[in-house]
Design goal:
- The protein is of the alpha+beta class.
- The chain folds into four domains: 69 residues; 138 residues, PAS domain (Beta-Lactamase); 88 residues, Orthogonal Bundle (Helix Hairpins), CATH 1.10.287.130; 151 residues, Heat Shock Protein 90 (2-Layer Sandwich).
- 54% of the residues lie in helices and 16% in strands.
- The chain is built from 13 helices and twelve strands.
- A five-stranded antiparallel beta sheet has the order 2-1-5-4-3, sandwiched between helices.
- Helix 8 packs across helix 13 and helix 9 crosses helix 11.
- The radius of gyration is 48 Å and the shape is elongated.
- The relative contact order is 0.07.
Length: 478
């Protein structure tokens, strides 16, 4: 495995993560264990005190105190302000009382709670420094502090008596020693297992990445068959799908490019051949004859114009795709614009025996680049005439629909199949099923698409055998 490969890096990061986890575990279980232990015990003492204080008027107070003392290993006293013991217990007293013969539960035997002397007759002696404790408690509702080995908590009850709770905070050095011995073995075993697990996990994760990398390496290759195994995770499946679609699009683009160069070579060769041929005819034969010379020169001019139109169309599309096209957006009368474009085709339609039926709603306005929208209309009508087939009737309409101006061009020629209809707006695409009756680069509809997209206009094409083919776009009115 290469040192900078995805698998090696994943293995290293996984191993590092394991090491960090065990370092944190060592710190918690050894270095900070005493602090955690002390804080936990202090929290338990304070919670026990809160429960006792909240139940200080309960008839079961002695049972509650005994239970807290036994559960948390506490020493508890209740005394008056003079230090007279009213009640005292610890974990051992509670256990002894529960184990007395004949005692079934705490409610069957309760020690008599009555004042006892501080020394004489007391069940246990008050702890050292209790007088200081009472002095501190007299100055505050609750107090808490630590002496050499214990944590002490005190509170004044509602009846004026003093609640004293203490617990020894023992050392955990012995426990730490045991944990260290265990952690050494556990850490070594876990690191070995993590190395092995990380290795197999890294291989499992790197496998689809390698497959996608191989897939990307052959992107655009027509004869490459992808063998990516899906199902590992959603992201790799989506990435593989994206690469596959990109490869398909690149192959299509390459096919379009080849078709374009084939078309453009033919379309450029024809006018160039005619220009050269007629120029030679002028030079060799018709130079002295004015009528023939004028006729030959007209052909040269016409073919030169065709050549210029082809080149300009290619340059215009490049400008539109690069995003450098500057649109002159202003309020325009779309109705008049449509009429002017239709009139441009009057002579061509008459020459080809095509009848253009128009339905133009008056005074429809939109904010747009007038010249660009006119070009889209021109391309739609020109495309309809070129593919009108044997049916020589076509329809052009412009109307207001839901605050949008809809422009439609319909011919009744051969329908466009669904596969071609999906790519009709692609650059360099020409419909092979129909014989072209005029030259073209296959950029007309692609240019229209770029213009309409820049105007945020909806557009589309629909085709059916019984209804012909419709090209349309919608632009907002103003």
């Amino acid at each position: 495995m290469k040192s900078k490969s995805f698998g090696v890096k994943l293995w290293l990061y996984f191993t590092l993560f394991t090491a960090v986890i065990f370092c944190a575990l060592w710190l918690v279980q050894t270095v900070f264990l005493q602090s955690f232990y002390n804080q936990t015990e202090i929290n338990n003492i304070e919670k026990s005190a809160e429960r006792i204080i909240s139940q200080q008027t309960s008839e079961e107070l002695d049972d509650i105190i005994d239970h807290e003392a036994y559960k948390n290993s506490l020493l508890i006293f209740i005394t008056d302000t003079d230090g007279q013991v009213i009640y005292s217990t610890d974990e051992h007293s509670y256990k002894k009382r529960r184990e007395r013969p004949g005692v079934q539960n705490d409610n069957q035997h309760k020690p008599e709670i009555k004042p006892q002397g501080r020394q004489k007759g007391a069940e246990r002696n008050l702890p050292d420094g209790y007088d200081d404790f009472l002095v501190k408690l007299s100055q505050s509702k609750t107090i808490s502090y630590e002496d050499d080995t214990s944590y002490i908590y005190g509170a004044r009850l509602d009846n004026g008596n003093a609640l004293y709770i203490s617990k020894s905070l023992g050392s955990v050095e012995n426990t730490v020693g045991i944990l260290r011995s265990q952690l050494v073995l556990i850490t070594l075993a876990a690191l070995v297992l993590s190395f092995i697990a990380a290795y197999f996990i890294s291989r499992r994760f790197s496998k689809p990445v390698k497959a996608i990398s191989e897939q990307a390496r052959h992107i655009g290759d027509e004869n490459y068959t992808s063998s990516f195994e899906k199902g590992f995770c959603k992201e790799t499946d989506e990435l593989s799908y994206t690469i596959s679609k990109t490869s398909e699009n690149l192959i299509k683009a390459e096919n379009y490019r080849r078709e374009f160069f084939a078309n453009i070579s033919h379309d450029l060769r024809t006018p160039l051949t005619m220009i050269k041929g007629y120029a030679e005819m002028v030079k060799d034969f018709s130079w002295e004859e004015k009528e023939s010379r004028e006729s030959d020169l007209d052909v040269i001019i016409k073919e030169s114009d065709r050549l210029t139109e082809l080149v300009n169309e290619i340059l215009d599309y490049s400008t539109l795709q690069s995003g450098t096209k500057k649109y002159d957006m202003q309020k325009s009368n779309i109705s008049e614009l449509a009429k002017n474009v239709i009139n441009q085709f009057a002579a061509l339609a008459e020459k080809n025996g095509i009848s253009i039926v128009s339905s133009i709603q008056k005074d429809l306005y939109a904010v747009c680049d007038r010249q660009s929208i006119a070009r889209v209309m021109y391309n739609f009508i020109d495309n309809a005439i070129s593919h009108s087939g044997n049916n020589k009737e076509m329809f052009v309409s412009l109307k207001n629909r839901d605050s949008k101006i809809r422009f439609e061009v319909r011919n009744l020629g051969q329908a466009i199949d669904e596969e071609s209809l999906e790519h009709i707006w692609d650059r360099y695409f020409t419909k092979k099923q129909q014989k072209r009756n005029k030259t073209g680069t296959g950029l007309g509809l692609a240019i229209s698409k770029e213009i309409l997209t820049a105007h945020n206009a909806a557009y589309g094409a629909e085709s059916a055998e019984d209804r012909g083919t419709v090209f349309w776009f919608e632009i907002m009115t103003c």
